[in-house]
Write the structure tokens for this entry.
Amino acid sequence: MHEVSIIQSVIKIVLEKAIECNLTKVNKVSLKIGELSGVMPECLNFAFKIGIMDTMLEGSTLEIEKVSAVAQCIDCKQEFPIDHFNKLCPCCNKFCSNIIRGYELYVNTIEGD
Amino acid sequence: MSKIKIVTNILQTNDEITLKNRRLLDEKGIYVINLMSSPGSGKTSLLERIIAKLKNDINIAVIEGDIYTTKDAMRIEAQGVPVVQINTGGACHLDGQMIKDALNTLTLDNIDLLVIENVGNLVCPAEFEIGENIKICVLSTTEGNDKPSKYPLMFEKSGAIILNKIDLIDYTDFDKKEFYKDIKSLNANADIFETSCSKNQGIDAVCVWLLSKIKNKKVKRK
């Protein structure tokens, strides 16, 4: 993935929201990243450290919550954990393409003063 | 200190542009393919074969994505269909904004099928929506059957997978059984076609399937 451009988008989103909420300092940024999204948290941390310099986010911490991949069977409605190579419903044993979690890529919360 | 809930998609800028692209293309009733593969799998060759076969029945337009050169666009232009070349100048995939700009230079009225040939790359193109109805991935036998398991996202997100250079399979160690097994576990609903663009094999089946997709979109629109 493109961790540097992702962090640039994150910083842009956070700054817009912080200004809207009259914050002068951001202390913490929390992201939700799905495990199928192809984004590497280690690279995000590195890009974040560089990207926040000379912004309201300088000195803030980045929290990354990984979201496990889950599918829901169209037939029996059972929710079950999946990975790229195993998407069979444990009840029906049928292939399921209804992936309900795992591709997340969003800014969840920010904390600031 | 205050905690503020944001819940904002990090790729929102691309997604918003893509949604607009999609609306415009839907309005015009154009079926859109995002064609992806490694460099050299045969995306442009496949496109040449499809255009030659279908250009008398439907109106086709093409957006060509490459890092540099207009070589592919020239090949498509020789087929007599409108084509726009995007040179990303280094970027490894196409995004919504590039497609938006390209759409502005195309006459969209009366187009039935728009094929967007993405930059040759098995990784990043799969991660960015550009306004397509379907992603199609080409894999050639000379690349090896291990590619779907090594680059799962692209094969997972593709609605159809085209196994090209099938005429060369006996000269490679490509294991078709393993390939089908991997695709089944990754993306059991994908349509799979076997083609040889250089020998003009298997193209008819792809074209028949494609025509039914285009027709479906038009019916839904009415």
Summary: Residues 12-221 of chain B form a domain with the Rossmann fold fold (CATH 3.40.50.300). The beta strands of chain B are 2-9, 31-37, 60-66, 83-87, 113-117, 134-140, 160-164, 191-194.
